[in-house]
């Protein structure tokens, strides 16, 4: 039973990594997110900050939903959550593309999906009680933080690579805490950790928005 | 078997990886920026040196083939921002390449026969 569950999580992770065809065919506009948090003072800068915060917090909630369904052995729910998570990834890449162009968007999406793949690896490792797989996934995620930091640093000189890498590392750690709590069947701890992990994303979204506004003050006035 | 050996030796001779310091013609360049090879495709005459410059603060590679089908013709590592590598391809053909560290990064060099 557990082996079967691990198998379909692995198979579904391919969907997450290669991109859900449905979500690619109908990418949601990042301004049309369902998250009811979007508030802004009406300036372009505020809209950017609110939009990025929505996308990044949504990323965490959907990732948590996917890992929780996977660990609970709920295949259909996991697949739906994984598809929604990938739609969120596409939306984030479009947000990046709206600032840095289509080439950056295309380069960002596989880079972003890569860390989701590592999170899936970690979840599979937890589900299968495979410590080596868990350790490899954590190491891959830590290495990934350098890639992500380099990407944003290359895009925007106001974002030092090491600072971004540390922030993303914290994202990885907070999400790992969620998965560990889910695996230990402790919903109270899992949901507390999930809120903390989602809340942490503001630490990434706000500096990113601020750096973009600083880089393009005419485009994002306010 | 004999023909295969000749092809192998020919391929090895056709590819020269060198740090060229002087050239009569300007060296085509490929910038690596934001995890992209720019331009993604270059077209040169056989024997022309091409230089890649890494603009990202992370290691990238210029590795021949694609992640599923490596061709082992070249595999150059660019350690970080500002690092460069130069490759000269003497044999006409199409050479796809990618970054081994970031497999979604792809590029292509088209080598045309040099004029007699």
Short description:
The complex is a heterodimer of chains A (222) and B (116). Chain A is mostly helical and 222 residues long.
Number of helices, counting only DSSP H or I runs of 4 residues or more of chain A: 9
Query: Uncertain runs of chain A with pLDDT below 50, 5 residues or more?
Result: 11-38
- Name the CATH homologous superfamily of chain B: Cupredoxins -  blue copper proteins
Rg for CA atoms of chain B: 14 Å
Count of the domains of chain B: 1
3D structure, described in words:
The complex is a heterodimer of chains A (222) and B (116). Chain A is mostly helical and 222 residues long. Chain A has helices at 2-18, 21-25, 44-71, 75-100, 102-127, 131-155, 161-183, 187-200, 202-215. Helix content of chain A is 80%, strand content 0%. Chain A is globular and about 50 Å long. Chain A starts with a helix and ends in a 7-residue tail after the last helix. With 116 residues, chain B is mostly beta strands. Chain B has a single domain, classed as Cupredoxins -  blue copper proteins (Immunoglobulin-like). Helix content of chain B is 11%, strand content 50%. Chain B has 1 helix and 10 strands, in the order αββββββββββ. In chain B, strand 2 and strand 3 (36-38) form a beta hairpin. Chain B is globular.
């Amino acid at each position: 039973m557990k082996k079967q569950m691990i198998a379909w999580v692995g198979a579904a992770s391919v969907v997450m990594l290669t991109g859900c065809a449905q979500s690619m065919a109908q990418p949601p506009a990042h301004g049309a997110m369902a998250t009811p948090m979007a508030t802004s003072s009406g300036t372009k800068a505020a809209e950017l900050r609110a939009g990025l915060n929505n996308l990044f917090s949504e990323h965490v909630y959907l990732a948590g939903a996917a890992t929780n369904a996977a660990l609970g052995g709920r295949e259909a729910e996991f697949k739906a959550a994984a598809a929604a998570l990938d739609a969120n990834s596409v939306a984030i890449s479009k947000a990046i593309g709206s600032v840095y162009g289509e080439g950056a968007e295309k380069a960002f999406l596989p880079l972003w999906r890569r860390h989701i793949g590592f999170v899936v690896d970690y979840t599979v490792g937890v589900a299968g009680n495979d410590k080596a797989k868990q350790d490899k996934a954590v190491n891959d995620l830590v290495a990934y933080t350098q890639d992500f930091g380099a990407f944003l640093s290359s895009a925007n000189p106001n974002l030092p690579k090491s600072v971004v890498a540390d922030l993303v590392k914290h994202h990885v750690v907070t999400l790992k805490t969620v998965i560990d709590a889910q695996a230990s069947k402790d919903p109270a701890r899992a949901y507390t950790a999930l809120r903390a992990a989602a809340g942490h994303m503001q630490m990434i979204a706000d500096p990113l928005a601020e750096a973009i506004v600083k880089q393009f003050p005419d485009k994002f006035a306010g | 078997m004999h023909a295969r050996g000749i092809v192998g030796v020919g391929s090895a001779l056709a590819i020269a990886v060198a740090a060229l310091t002087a050239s009569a013609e300007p060296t085509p360049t490929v910038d690596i920026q934001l995890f992209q090879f720019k331009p993604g495709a270059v077209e040169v005459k056989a024997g022309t040196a091409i230089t890649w410059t890494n603009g990202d603060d992370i290691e990238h590679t210029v590795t021949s083939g694609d992640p599923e089908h490596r061709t082992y013709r070249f595999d150059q590592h660019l350690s970080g921002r500002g690092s460069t590598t130069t490759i000269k391809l003497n044999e006409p053909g199409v050479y796809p390449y990618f970054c081994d560290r970031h497999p979604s990064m792809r590029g292509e060099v088209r080598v045309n026969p040099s004029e007699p």
